[in-house]
Amino acid sequence: MNAPNNISAQTQNRKADHIRICLEEDVQSHQITNGLERYRFTHSCLPEINHDDIDISTAFLGKHLDAPLLISSMTGGTEQAATINRRLAQVAQHYKIAMGVGSQRVAVEKPQVADTFAVRKYAPDVLLFANLGAVQLNYKYGLDECLRVVDILEADALILHINPLQECIQPKGDTNFRGLLDKISDLCAKLPVPVIAKEVGNGISAAIASKLIAAGVAAIDVAGAGGTSWAKVESERAENPLQRRLGRTFADWGLPTAECITTIRAIAPNVPLIASGGLRHGLDVAVAIALGADIAGLAMPFLQAAATSETAVAELAEVLIAEITTVLFCTGNASLYQLKHSGSLQRIE
Questions:
Q1: Among residues 34, 29, 76, 32, which one has the least CA distance to residue 228?
Q2: Distance from C-alpha of 279 to C-alpha of 285, rounded to nearest angstrom
């Protein structure tokens, strides 16, 4: 299925706009936070472990990671995006961390840009996630298109991002979400790789997570509020005063990341869970893991680094790993499992 050329051009232009706006404009949430600052670890001045023995490796969807980190879905479809994805993939390979790409709808509509997503050649051993908007299942997309984007990436799983607020504000957004859960369920039953449900910065509630898990989704990425506001991003792209006003009104809409983690974990103790949404450093990652997440995703910090150089991305990965390791050392935990079960994370009243 190929959309008309004007639609594919619009999609490609939107991708370029998103990179520019995220790098150049203030599109962060200000009135709502990710909620992780409401927690702190109990410091252990006598950890009784050797720092060199600390192991922050984990497994996610059956694949080993040297650190509980995901380079969250960001971009693709343009020349700049190709450079960004290559830099991210090479660093993901070096540090054995997971990576997702941005929505591959543009690659379905315009196959000649598929190579901007095709990072497996740079990251042969990495846990890689393909990506499509779930709502496209209501706009003539189906199993074939999902298989196509998985094949482009040689992906280990497919992210279906769910973004009703963004679609409401986005010029010419796709807003027919009727009957989508049944189509997600059908896809989960037929797709040969796991499906991950992900929000884009407004959070997934426990009630919706429960429905998605029942539908066959293999993992949840909460993508909570408190980081980049896609309402703000789309407000910057507005074609009329109404869209601009909507983006500003709903700039801080959503469920904080910490709340999403704790409420979903309470009703689904074993579902693979990704924490993302406003995480900016390794301490945030450690708090999210201690709250119940399995791995943590960061987008904006990696985007800013990748827009600079591969070296900047590598330096960021080094810092994140050092920060996570420092939390474990200063709480007396030698592994992520121990951290989760140590009781060292306390809510600040």
A1: 29
A2: 7
* Residue positions counted in the chain: 349
207, HSE (Cβ side, Cα atoms, 13 Å): 1
- Which residue, chain included where needed, has tokens 């601009």? 244
Pairwise CA distance, residues 205 & 228, whole Å: 18
Residue 275's φ and ψ, nearest 5 degrees, are: -100, 120
Which candidate, 99, 38, 41, places its Cα nearest to that of 73?
99
Name the one residue in this structure whose structure tokens are 């974990």: 265
Angstrom CA distances, 5 to 9, 72, 164, 343, stand at 6, 29, 25, 56
| Tokens found for residue 112 | 């000649």
**pTM for the full model?**
0.95
In this structure, the number of other CB atoms found within 10 A of the CB of residue 9 comes to 14
Asked if residues 291 and 345 have their Cβ atoms less than 8 Å apart, the reply is yes
Q: What are phi and psi of 313, to 5 degrees?
A: -65, -45
Note whether 163 and 200 are within 8 A (CB): yes
Measured CA distances, 304 to 81, 277, 280 (Å): 12, 16, 12
Contact 76, 102 (CB under 8 A): yes
Spatial separation of the C-alpha atoms in residues 264 and 213, rounded to whole Å = 11
Q: How far is CA 155 from CA 54, 128, 129, 173, in A?
A: 30, 5, 5, 27
Query: What radius of gyration, in Å, describes the C-alpha atoms of the chain?
Result: 19
- Dump pLDDT digits (tens) for 49-67: 999 999 999 999 999 999 9
Residue by residue, DSSP assigns 167-220 as: HHHSTT-----TTHHHHHHHHHHH-SS-EEEE-SSS---HHHHHHHHHTT--EE
- Decide: helix, strand or coil at residue 116: helix
Write out pLDDT tens, residues 170-182.
988 999 999 999 9
Contact predicate 24/232, CB 8 Å? no
Residue pair 305/312 in contact (Cβ under 8 Å)? The answer is: yes
Q: Which residue has the tokens 């050649």?
A: 121
